[in-house]
Structure formats: C-alpha cells, structure tokens
C-alpha cells in the first residue's frame, strides 16, 4: 500500500496531524505552552491514554505504562518513544506524549502500519516544531536574602 501524507489541521483546539492506513487512523495532537510541548498520540478503534512518555531537550526519556488488563500494561510506549526520539533535537523545553492506539483484534500488518504511521507523523511534528519555534518567555525566580 502506498504511503499517504499526513494531514495537518488547526482549528480552535490543538494542532492535529493524522494518517490513515490499514483500516485505522492515528493522530498526533499538539499543544504548546511556552517552549514545552504536549502531544496526544491516539487512534484506532478505541483511542485512549495508556502510556505517558516524557522527554527533555537533553534527550532524557522516561516512559510509564498504565495497566491495560490483569497482568498486562499498555504497549504504546514503542510509539511514544519513537515520537520522543524524533522530536527531541528540536525541543525548546520538555515534551509530554500521552499515547493510546487500540485496534480491535489487531493484525501484524496493522501493528507495522501503526509504527510506520507514527514515524511519518513524528517527522511531520518535528518539521512543524522546527519551522515554528515558540517565543519562549524567560522564567524568573525570587531570590531570598538567605540564598545570596
């Protein structure tokens, strides 16, 4: 099946990148606060929040997966960590990626499609972030007399 270019949309909510292949859609929804990025990587038959991946501009990645059913945790970390590695070089701050892509009775071909779509979406998100840097406000902190 030929690759389909991601669709980029912006309405009143987050910036939305989406791709459809193998009978399902994956979306990357991007919001920004100052230099920080919040991404939702969701899709399939049951979009949800099953994994959280955090990455800083130095490249430290931390992933936590929630339980999915007794004895199992969500597996979308493979997707969210791929997104994190791709966007890390252009981050101005931190990124939090919340992911949940569930395709009912998923096939091996659909698993591969999820990985491929995530890679293409990650490239699009990285390109957009690089082309649209945030006007980062400087954080200032009160310095007490004892600290001086």
Structural features, described:
The protein is of the alpha+beta class and 148 residues long. The protein contains two helices and nine strands, in the order E-E-E-E-E-E-E-E-H-E-H. Helices cover 24% and strands 36% of the residues. It has a seven-stranded mixed beta sheet with strand order 1-2-3-4-9-5-6, with helices on one face. The protein has a two-stranded antiparallel ribbon with strand order 7-8.
Task: Give short descriptive properties of this protein.
2 helices, 7-stranded mixed β-sheet, 24% helix, two-stranded antiparallel sheet, alpha+beta, 148 residues, Ribosomal Protein S5, domain 2, globular
Outline of the structure:
The chain has helices spanning 77-87, 108-131; strands at residues 7-10, 15-21, 24-33, 36-44, 51-55, 61-65, 67-69, 72-73, 95-102. It has 148 residues and is an alpha+beta fold.
Count of individual helical segments = 2
Please give the order of strands in the largest beta sheet.
1-2-3-4-9-5-6
Q: Low-confidence segments, ≥5 residues, pLDDT <50?
A: none
Rough shape? globular
Count of distinct strands: 9
Give the topology, please.
Blueprint: E1 7-10, E2 15-21, E3 24-33, E4 36-44, E5 51-55, E6 61-65, E7 67-69, E8 72-73, H1 77-87, E9 95-102, H2 108-131
């Amino acid at each position: 099946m030929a690759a389909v270019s991601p669709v980029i949309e912006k309405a009143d909510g987050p910036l939305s990148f989406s791709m459809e292949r193998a009978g399902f859609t994956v979306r990357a929804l991007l919001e920004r606060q100052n230099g920080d990025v919040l991404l939702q990587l969701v899709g399939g038959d049951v979009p949800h929040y099953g994994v959280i991946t955090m990455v800083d501009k130095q490249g430290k990645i931390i992933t936590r997966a929630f339980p999915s059913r007794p004895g199992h945790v969500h597996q979308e970390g493979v997707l969210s960590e791929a997104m994190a590695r791709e966007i890390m070089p252009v981050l101005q701050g931190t990124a939090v990626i919340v992911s949940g892509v569930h395709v009912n009775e998923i096939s091996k071909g659909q698993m591969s499609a999820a990985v491929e779509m995530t890679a293409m979406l990650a490239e699009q998100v990285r390109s957009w972030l690089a082309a649209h840097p945030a006007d980062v406000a400087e954080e200032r902190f009160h310095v007490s007399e004892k600290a001086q």
